[in-house]
Amino acid sequence: MSSPASTAGGPVPAYGGAAADPYLPGSGSTAYRVDRYELELDYKVSSNRLSGRAVLHGVVLVPTSAIVLDLAGLRATKVQLDGRKTARFSQRREQLVVSAQAALQPGQAFTLEIRYEGSPSPRKGLWGEVGWEELSDGVLVANQPNGAPSWFPCNDHPRDKASYRFTVTTDAHYRAVCNGLLQSRTTRSSRETWVYEQAEPMPTYLATVQIGRYGLLELETGKHVAQVPQSVAVAPGLAERARLGLALQPAMMRTFINCFGPYPFPGYTVVVTEDELEIPLEAQGMSILGPNHLDQDWESQRLIAHELSHQWFGNSLTAASWQDIWLHEGFACYSEWIWSQEAGIMSVAARADAAWRRLKADAQDLLVGDPGPEHMFDDRVYKRGALAVHAVRMACGDLAFFALLQGWLTQHRHGSVSTHDFFVAVDRATDLDAESLLHPWLYEEVLPPLPAG
């Protein structure tokens, strides 16, 4: 639920340029971009009470008379624009509208400071509940696709990527885990403060805070992947189970580095909640698993591989629009198949054949390259997207295929991409006609024949 409308300083003038992503028309704006978020969060676990201060550094992109932010279920109490004592602002329809004294012009830099408070809760939508969620003893934050406004004011557009600084104060004996590198941890009385710096640009839906009674253990990575620290935040009682369940993750990391190129972030953290989770989740530089995802069977291990591969496909490279979600999920599903073959479980060809047969038996009424918001996380987007990737590999051969992927990831490192960008990359790196090859997989309902090498 949005917070009650509140206004400081009179009526809000008209504003423009707020084109949103077509799959989430109520979220985000292209009237400006945010280059950096500095978030200070003070959270009480027992009462689920959050007091926040957000400082946003941005640049205006089109003429506008107001900055429109997404904020759902929390109440802004004070807003400053460029250091002015009080800015006029209002809250309505899960948006915070901050008025400027004079029209803002393209190229104009601005700084917004927003103080806000409330009891955060997840947002309900087509994909269930997303955002800030209470656990039995702590907090889980899963933003994708539009949960970020449940805990901080933001420009919730998938193309808007920024650096972050998180300062989280919470009860003693709880660990706060955020994106980026831990800068400091201080204790005062019954409160602890954790500071993280996320330098690589990140969209709002990948920002996260996880809070729990977690210890931290380091995975033994071996000399081949020692340059990528891998840690696990886990309750002490689950530590050994986590160590066993994630024992193959360093080998997965080595496999993906060999296939895709350098790991794109300074480190990788897995958070294991005490609560069981329906599905695992990924954030930038991080994945969140439940204890039910730590088994040795293929189902658990493929999910661990899937979330790890998202660091390349979906975290470093992110879709500029949600209609291109197959660029995340199709590649991550294909990464599962790569790991399956590397681990000696089942070959990529056998995985592709099994996926194709399931798709053939299923309804063929979805365009994977534009599935619509209600179907953007449909399993067919994952499996048929993976088969589209496989079709490229079968058409050009392994040497050209992996060179293509590494070039694609290097060229767009930490950037936003589209399906058109991928078509261009395929055309430039191979002798293939990407449009002819991939259009049937992405933009036609009828399933094409199984790709053959």
Explain this structure.
The structure is a single chain. The protein has helices spanning 239-245, 249-260, 298-309, 326-342, 348-361, 379-396, 398-411, 419-429, 434-443; strands at 7-8, 32-44, 49-60, 64-70, 75-81, 89-92, 95-104, 109-118, 123-125, 128-135, 138-142, 161-171, 175-178, 181-188, 191-203, 209-212, 215-218, 230-234, 268-272, 281-283, 286-289, 318-319, 416-417. With 453 residues, the protein is an alpha+beta fold. It has three domains: 7-212, Sandwich (Immunoglobulin-like), CATH 2.60.40; 215-309, Neutral Protease, domain 2; 318-443, Neutral Protease, domain 2, CATH 1.10.390. A hairpin with a 4-residue loop joins strand 2 and strand 3 (49-60). Helix 5 (348-361) packs across helix 6, helix 6 packs across helix 7 and helix 7 (398-411) crosses helix 8. The protein starts with 6 loop residues before the first strand and ends in a 10-residue tail after the last helix. 47% of the residues are buried.
What is this structure's SSE topology?
Blueprint: E1 7-8, E2 32-44, E3 49-60, E4 64-70, E5 75-81, E6 89-92, E7 95-104, E8 109-118, E9 123-125, E10 128-135, E11 138-142, E12 161-171, E13 175-178, E14 181-188, E15 191-203, E16 209-212, E17 215-218, E18 230-234, H1 239-245, H2 249-260, E19 268-272, E20 281-283, E21 286-289, H3 298-309, E22 318-319, H4 326-342, H5 348-361, H6 379-396, H7 398-411, E23 416-417, H8 419-429, H9 434-443
Helix pairs in contact: 2-3, 3-4, 4-6, 5-6, 6-7, 6-9, 7-8
